[in-house]
Design brief:
single chain; alpha+beta; 2 domains; four-stranded antiparallel beta sheet; 17 helices; 16 strands; 45% helix; binds iron/sulfur cluster
Length: 461
């Protein structure tokens, strides 16, 4: 195996690029061991959620929807409209601070245990590859071999399954954006009826197929910006997969050597091709494959497991446990404040969002009696799933109001409606070219005040 034999090589050479700049295909050993079993369970749960979530509904609405096109978002059954941007920004901010705090404390645990890229790559696509093309060395031989019937059916079946799963991921991703019903409609009614939807589905699925069949570890080591943040986030107390050099060095099998027998099994197991013995590296996705590989060797040579294990630089050097430092406390404080604000805002969110605008292009009119009239539009959005009765009344007794369709209107759950209304004011009550007026919108048990500037002729008093 052509690993980077000299420790310093890893600073100047990439494990998946040849010296003349070509892609070097990686053939990681098939993982097995207690950490791998745990990851299989976690992956099973997370991927079940990923595929099942678009199927869940609450009162006829999706449980989770990220409809960027119509700017409608449903997070765990709670509907957010374009007017709720503040909640979505806050939710995004909380997510990023959480990710940062999590990374400071636990390193790239997200990458190894929860990132869809790693889960699909290592737990789905890679497993299909092992099942059809054999272990790492059999795959290598198959790729070097000239084409024959055996190679053709193995490659054909593998890529057929890769495409089928990429299509399943692409359709699920689409269902998160447009909802399951719309996604089904795009599929059943075909490309002629939904050309843009069909192109989007095809683009999603093609990107997934390309990532999992070709890009692979490059998505984590070069493309993903989260991985690049590691250098700025990790501290000596950050928890990650680490090699215990105090125990392992000097490497070798001779008398007096450390516990590392320099077998390179940890390197051969690594899906990003790195040597964990070179220390914490940006390319490590914390997949735990090297822990299982090294534990297996330790058992065989009769030494304690854990030469490669979860730990922190500090815990390796001083034999201490990872602890909370000022940076972790700081992030925790910021996160707590953000979550607190979010909860308060959510608890006090009004059930109906309402805005009044003047009908564009319409000037004020004068009635036969000489009163001034203006036409307005009341846009209302019901943020709840229940029907709500609405009434709009002026706050001043000299203001006349006529709502098209009657005095009380029922707004259905999640409904958005434009209500037109006429406001009439006698000239003697006008304050100038514009007169500030206010109205009370009664929506179920809630009331809110809405203001307008009523336009009229110039009045000199
Ligand atoms: S170094 Fe170990 S934990 Fe990191 S990516 Fe490689 S095998 Fe996974
Ligand atoms: S698997 Fe363990 S013993 Fe073998 S080279 Fe890696 S760290 Fe050393």
């Amino acid at each position: 195996m052509d690993f980077l034999e000299h420790a310093e090589d890893y600073r100047s050479l990439l494990p998946n690029v040849t010296e003349d700049g070509k892609r070097k295909w990686l053939y990681p050993l098939k993982p097995s061991g207690k950490w791998h079993k745990r990851r299989v369970w976690v992956t099973g749960i997370l991927l079940s959620f990923f595929f099942a979530m678009p199927l869940f509904r609450v009162n006829g609405e999706p449980f989770f929807l990220l409809n960027f096109l119509e700017r409608k978002f449903i997070l765990f059954g709670v509907i957010f409209w374009p007017q709720d941007t503040i909640y979505l920004l806050l939710a995004a901010l909380i997510f990023f601070v959480f990710i940062i705090l999590f990374t400071v404390a636990f390193g790239r645990i997200w990458c190894g245990w929860a990132c869809p890229q790693t889960l699909f790559m290592e737990m789905v696509f890679r497993k299909i590859e092992y099942a059809i093309e054999g272990n790492a060395s059999q795959q290598k031989l198959l790729n070097k071999r000239s084409w024959d019937v055996d190679k053709a059916w193995r490659k054909g079946l593998k890529h057929f399954l890769f495409i089928a799963i990429s299509l399943a991921i692409g359709h699920t991703a689409m269902a998160y954006i447009v909802g399951m019903d719309e996604m089904k409609r795009i599929v059943w009614e075909g490309p002629a009826a939904h050309l843009s939807g069909f192109i989007a589905l095809l683009a999603f699925s093609s990107v997934f197929y390309l990532v999992f069949s070709q890009l692979r570890e490059i998505a984590c080591t070069i493309i993903c910006p989260y991985g690049r943040l590691q250098g700025a986030l990790i501290t000596p107390d950050t928890f990650h997969v680490i090699y215990d050099e105090s125990r392992g060095e000097p490497r070798g099998k001779k008398e007096g050597s450390g516990d590392c027998v320099n077998c390179f099994k940890c390197v051969a197991s690594c899906p990003t091709g790195i040597d964990i013995r070179n220390g914490i590296q940006l390319d490590c996705v914390n997949c735990t494959a090297c822990i299982d590989a090294c534990d297996d060797i330790m058992r065989k040579v009769g030494k304690p497991e854990g030469l490669v294990r979860y730990g922190s630089q500090q815990s390796i050097t001083h034999g201490t446990k990872p602890k909370m430092d000022a940076r972790k406390w700081g992030y925790t404080g910021v996160l707590s404040v953000l979550v607190g604000i979010f909860v308060v805002l959510l608890a006090t969110r009004s059930a109906v969002e309402a805005t009044i605008t003047k009908i564009p292009g319409k000037l004020y009119t004068t009635t036969q009696e000489g009163n001034i009239q203006n036409l307005y539009k009341l846009q209302v959005i019901n943020k709840t799933r229940d029907s709500i009765p609405l009434t709009l009344n002026p706050d001043d007794s000299f203001v006349g109001l006529e709502l098209a369709g009657g005095g009380t209107q029922w707004l259905g759950g999640s409904e958005k409606r434009d209500l037109i209304f006429m406001v009439t004011v006698a000239p003697k009550d006008l304050k100038g070219h514009t007169t500030p007026l206010s109205f009370t919108l009664q929506a179920g048990g809630e009331s809110q005040h809405l203001a307008i500037d009523f336009a009229g002729p110039m009045v000199f008093k």
